[in-house]
TrEMBL record, chains A, B:
One of its GO terms (biological process) is coenzyme A biosynthetic process. Pathway: Cofactor biosynthesis; coenzyme A biosynthesis. It comes from Cenarchaeum symbiosum (strain A). The keyword ATP-binding applies. Transmembrane segments: none annotated. Belongs to the archaeal phosphopantothenate synthetase family. HAMAP family: PPS. Keywords: ATP-binding, Coenzyme A biosynthesis, Ligase, Nucleotide-binding. GO terms for molecular function: acid-amino acid ligase activity; ATP binding. ATP binds at residues 16, 38, 181-183, 187-188, 199-200. Catalyzes the condensation of (R)-4-phosphopantoate and beta-alanine to 4'-phosphopantothenate in the CoA biosynthesis pathway. It comes from the Archaea. It catalyses: (R)-4-phosphopantoate + beta-alanine + ATP = (R)-4'-phosphopantothenate + AMP + diphosphate + H(+). This is 4-phosphopantoate--beta-alanine ligase.
Length: 252, 252
């Protein structure tokens, strides 16, 4: 259905339509729609803008990606539906490979997500080939799938919108974990090394841009950015931003 | 898929499954899954419990319902999937009729929701019969449908999880509006006369119980409860509860 140009929630409604189309196209899981709604609520508290603390996390994430030996960008159904092109640009800017990861049942969803990424210019997308499929230690059979050449071999993984158990398993496997999570209280947000509390529809492209901007910097300068970032302190600051947002929007 | 008994988010996962089954059964709209996610996030900030301020709103709502001449309980897809039996109990306790209201496209959804309510013991459910269908002034053709014998003739309407435009149209039509909305900042929350900031899976049955408890009280006692309730002040208190929840859960 057409969203009127004048609608006060137009942007948000258009994003919802993208996800519904993603469900129809077999990219998105039904549970992904609920997860999106949770993110929307937290984004609303942020004023639907990339805040100062998200920017700090984005800069640290770009530095970690450029310092990585084998970085991977993990893509699930919601990421594919909302920002496949941006994720492909990020992979290019960070010289990272891409891997499809689905949390909820498969039924061909992995292959469709990989095809969507390739349609947007990705090459050699991992995660859809059962022959190189391994498993993350400490996860259940159905939910721990990871590619032997991808996540299992990576040193740095970008896992936007990830499940808490999987994030813990990635950390236990010695990976550096970068995530996008609008809920600063989630287990993923607290477990990751760098948590970008931002909407992927805004933050993914910004991360790609920062990777390009920083690409000429040397390892010492990049390491300095990483050392100066404290994920716990940054999450606490995001929570303060949200409580202020709750009050501000009530008065508005 | 089976949710393990030990899972820390078991209750929440079981509710999600109910909604997904509701989608499969043609009761729930896909947009309803996203709306549920938004509610989950706010409920999380409330500590997933019915707070003091929700209880205050529930008591005022029970009093308003018992004082009403022609109360109506409006039921959409999410309500039907999550608490159809509770909504039927509320209608019985409040001597209210029930009306099906869907915000997103129809395609038989109204009839299926009515059938679900009747399966749970409701009689004479309105809103599924095109012959008595009218329209709320000030709403678009597709989204303003309301039954001439139901909402259009009612003095008090309970509209859980309602859209902001429709809530405004109900107020403009002179109705007293009671809503359940976990987002205290939403237009519906701010427009309704009584906003119960609580999860319908907890609050609906509690409202029915309060209607039974108050049923022997006279009009003066009930009116006193209503007069002592201030929706704006109560919403502000809910927001304070949520900001405290954000901080508490961060420390936990």
């Amino acid at each position: 259905m057409a969203v009127p140009r004048s609608h006060p929630r137009r942007e948000s409604l258009l994003v919802r339509e993208k996800l519904v189309r993603g469900l129809e196209r077999g990219l998105v899981a039904r549970e992904g729609l609920m997860a999106h709604g949770r993110g929307e609520a937290f984004d609303y508290l942020l004023g639907e803008a990339t805040g100062r603390h998200a920017r700090k996390a984005l800069r640290a994430a770009a530095a970690v990606l450029l310092l990585a030996e084998r970085p991977i960008i993990s893509v699930n159904g919601n990421v594919a539906a909302l920002c496949a092109a941006e994720a492909v640009r990020l992979a290019r800017a960070a010289r990272a490979r891409m891997e499809v990861n689905t949390f909820y049942g498969d039924g061909g969803r992995r292959a469709r997500i990989a095809a969507e990424l390739e349609r947007r210019g990705a090459r050699g997308v991992l995660g859809a080939n059962p022959e190189s499929r391994g498993r993350l230690a400490g996860t259940s059979r159905s939910r721990g799938a990871a590619d032997k050449e991808g996540i299992l071999a990576a040193d740095v993984v970008v896992v936007p919108l990830e499940d808490g158990d999987r994030t813990s398993a990635l950390k236990a496997a010695g990976k550096q974990v970068i995530t996008f999570d609008l809920n600063p209280l989630s287990r993923t947000a607290r477990t990751a090394d760098i948590t970008i509390v931002d909407n992927i529809t805004r933050g993914m492209d910004e991360l790609a841009r920062l990777c390009r901007e920083y690409s000429a910097r040397g390892a010492p300068a990049l390491s300095r950015i990483v050392r100066n970032f404290d994920n716990g302190a940054n999450l606490a600051a995001c929570i303060r931003e949200m409580t202020a947002g709750l009050r501000r929007q009530w008065i508005a």
